[in-house]
Amino acid sequence: MKKLTLCVAAAAALTAVASTASAQEAPPYENWVGLFGQYYSADRMKNPPDGGLTDGKGFGGEVGFRFDPSWAIRFELGRLSIDSETNNPFASDDDGTQLGADIMYFVKDDGAYFFGGLREQSLSTENYRMAAGGVGKHWKLNENTRIITEVAAYHDFGQGYHEYSAKVGLAYIFGTNYVASNPDSDNDGVYDAVDRCPSTPAGMQVDATGCNIDMDGDGVINAQDQCPMTPKGVKVDAKGCEVAVVADLDTDNDGVLDSRDKCLNTPMADKVDAEGCTVFTRREVSVKLEMFFDNNSSAITNPDSAQIEEFAAFMAKYPTAEAIIEGHTSVAGEADYNLMLSKKRAQAVRALLINDYGVDANRLQAIGYGETRLRNTANTIAANKVNRRIEVRVSMEVAEKADR
What pTM value is reported for the model? Predict the structure, then answer.
């Protein structure tokens, strides 16, 4: 019972260590040969007619062939020397050979392997045929060398004996490392050497070349798609090409068929996007208005000047533009009076634009600054003339059509 417990504990420990030993995980390889030493626990009823075998040791060699990332077959040949119980005067030591064959399953990243197979054991007294099963791991030393660790249990088909073993060995790797020579960087199942789309997002279904199985999303897989760049949403035939519809015209001659044109009446001069709609560019527009007044007056002497007409035309062209009309005076006179006079000048211009030019009153604001914003601070006739003024400047960003 102690032997059974010891071997089961060793198997559990080996599995646990293998599952956490990511630092020592080795990539899959094809073939190996190895030499090993072995501890063997025989059934106490073995060695007829009196039984009495206990523990023993052995050594041997093995060769394995990896035919799949997960599966391999192995053959081993060993020499056993099994001791007898010292308190059984009829028992004797026994030795012989053991020949085995196993099928092996390697878990992900070679964290461990499980195996099952047959053993043919030939001792000096008798031959035994047994089933074998166990768990092990190949620990990587370098690219061509592994340490073998393994525990196994055996069941004799004839006498029902139950036996256990543990072995440690050294394996030499030979053959092609197919993971190293055929990497799959994006894990899509297609090796980099033939992968035409080496950065496929995780989970995407791919074709034999490693690309999205339907690159243009038209419902026809790449292998059958004779028009692999069909625009999204276009009706296609079984070959993945756009279906020619007689009624599908280009009414506004903008280069986009009516079936895809979201702006069917685009002017001929307009540049259009892929959906047939006008392309707009943004730029800043502005207009400036200056008017001058006689001394101590708010009367507009030139109400039909070209500058006023230009300003009114700008306001009509850009109906969202708003303007602040600023009134100013010279330094002559009292400051309070000048503030009142500047307001009257601004209000006079506002009234002119509303009444004579039709500008919406809600878009115009009149403010008087009096003598607080002088252009020329001298108290001369020339300075007073340039200070008696109205200033208006409007600027805004507008979207304009791009020419085809």
Answer: 0.42
